[in-house]
Write a structure and sequence with these properties.
The chain has strands at 9-12, 18-24, 29-35, 41-44, 51-59, 62-70. 0% of the residues lie in helices and 56% in strands. The strands form two sheets. A four-stranded antiparallel sheet has the order 3-2-5-6, with no helix packed on it. It is mainly β. The chain contains no helices and six strands.
């Protein structure tokens, strides 16, 4: 049995309302969600294949991109 923890969700909290997308390495958007200001938002990733993904967060006219690894 593997002891590797499978990430079940990504949790975000932003100061301004916005949008988040999870994008695969091939550029395909695999998740989209709206973000409310100051409220935690959980995005399920439990059914995504293992690998590297980009989390694109757009709020207040700014865009941030973070990398996440799903084991």
């Amino acid at each position: 049995a593997s002891d590797v923890y499978k990430r079940q969700q990504v949790t975000l909290c932003v100061p301004q309302a916005g949008q988040v997308s999870i994008v695969s390495l091939s550029g395909m958007v695999v998740r989209n969600a709206s973000l409310a200001a100051g409220i935690k938002t959980d995005i399920s990733v439990k059914d995504l294949p293992s690998g590297l993904y980009f989390v694109r967060i757009g709020t207040g006219g700014r865009v941030q991109i973070k990398e996440i690894v799903i084991p």
